[in-house]
Design goal:
Order of helices and strands: HHHHEEEEEEEEHHEEHEEEHEHEEEE
Low-confidence stretches: 1-23
Oligomer: single chain
Number of domains: 4
């Protein structure tokens, strides 16, 4: 079971408690070593053993000087021993979920079968609108596989044939990025506007009518490790919390968290709230995908009624002053840049976990660590707000955060 006796909660509760962002590295599992790798320890042990053995065999006390040829030879042996012990430790750790990475982690996950395969990169999607340059007296076909180019050389290809009947001049066709990953995301409508493999006997123009979305990189080792940790729960059909979380995280590699909530007044009703990487809200397509993944007949009790929602956004506007000590005036430019970054990191931290309380003390801590002497937060007010299980604290999109350097102060 993915819980720890000392914590008394679910694994996701523990993850929330020990890290400012979702930490999939299993920090609650103790660290272990299979071999001593410290070269200084190995050298001390080998030299001591040699001197002891020499005395036992000859009755003479011998201390190896730094330039003694025997000592130099033993240092070479110690070098190889250190490498060997490193390999021994590495080999042992690659058999443990806490440490395994890459192909080693994939092989550990294989013990759970295809349900625990690593989520691969996904290609971004969009809708392309093809418009004839002139009306035709016959039906026109936009062939599947037509390549259209976006900025930076990213190409999208149509997935199906598009048909423009006689009398019409345009058709919308679904297209997918040729290269999978986030590199295909966020091209705004109109940016994809050229065809690179057109060989039809009529002219046509193209633009994307929707923002390109859905591209995702392959599941990272840390996120995959946490999902494998939850995999044991996926064998249950009794609707445990972690089973729903496992299947929700398995729906898309960009999902970093999913709140699982049982409606207290409605028996058998389960509400899911997924959150995407960098605190982005799930699109309708992702919500539908999570629902399909968690509602399969083999993955949930037949009596459970599952609904998937986007987290409820609680907006705030940040307005703060900060002061710097006169002793650090020579570092002022660096401190100002560090404070700006600390604020940006805090805003991202706030929106990177559903139900994380709005906490300006965390903001103050980060700014002080960045070099500020004193922080005055004018808004949000109050500067601590409790979030419900489905709420996500997000800075408002209508205004930029106000981060005002208020001057130097005496130490």
């Amino acid at each position: 079971m993915p819980t720890t006796p000392d914590f008394g909660g679910t694994s996701s509760d523990l993850i929330k408690s020990v890290s400012s962002t979702p930490d999939y590295g299993l920090p609650f599992v103790p660290d272990i070593d299979f071999a001593v790798k410290d070269p200084t320890v190995i050298i001390a042990e080998v030299i001591a053993d040699y001197e002891s053995a020499f005395q036992t065999l000859t009755g003479i006390i011998k201390t190896l000087a730094p330039g003694d040829p025997v000592r130099l030879f033993l240092l070479v042996v110690c070098h190889w021993l250190s490498h060997q012990r490193t390999l021994i430790d590495f080999t042992g750790k690659m058999n443990l979920l806490k440490y395994a990475h890459g192909d080693y982690l994939d092989n550990l996950a294989a013990l759970h079968g295809d349900r625990a395969l690593r989520l691969q990169a996904q290609a971004a999607m969009t809708t392309l609108r093809f418009t004839l340059t002139a009306a035709l007296a016959f039906s026109a076909t936009i062939p599947a596989g037509t390549l259209c180019q976006a900025p930076d050389g990213i190409s999208f290809q149509t997935l199906t044939d598009g048909f423009i009947p006689t009398g019409s001049t345009e058709v919308d066709v679904t297209a997918q990025a040729v290269v999978a990953g986030v590199i295909g995301n966020n091209f705004t409508p109109g940016q994809i506007n050229s065809i690179i493999n057109w060989n039809q006997p009529f002219g046509v123009n193209v633009v994307n009518t929707t923002l390109t979305t859905g591209g995702a990189d392959a599941e990272t080792d840390d996120q995959y490790r946490y999902r494998v940790w939850l995999a044991i729960e996926s064998y249950s059909t009794c609707g445990p919390h972690d089973a729903y979380e496992f299947w929700a995280l398995s729906a898309d590699p960009d999902i970093i968290q999913c709140v699982v909530h049982s409606a207290p007044e409605i028996a058998g009703e389960v509400w899911l709230y997924p959150l995407m990487r960098e605190g982005q809200l799930p699109s309708p397509e992702v919500l539908a995908l999570v629902l399909a993944t968690c509602s399969a007949n083999t993955r949930r009790p037949i009596t459970d009624y599952v609904s998937v929602f986007a987290p409820t956004v609680v907006t705030y506007a940040l307005n703060m002053d900060y002061y710097v000590s006169q002793n650090n005036e020579v570092l002022l430019a660096t401190i100002q840049a560090n404070v700006q970054q600390a604020v940006a990191d805090w805003i991202l931290w706030q929106r990177s976990y559903v139900s994380r309380d709005l906490n300006c003390d965390e903001l103050r801590k980060r700014c002080l660590e960045a070099g500020a002497k004193r922080i005055v937060v004018h808004s949000p007010t109050p500067d601590f707000q409790v979030m419900n299980y489905n709420q996500l604290a997000c800075h408002t999109d209508t205004t930029a955060p106000i981060i005002n350097f208020a001057g130097l102060e005496e130490p």
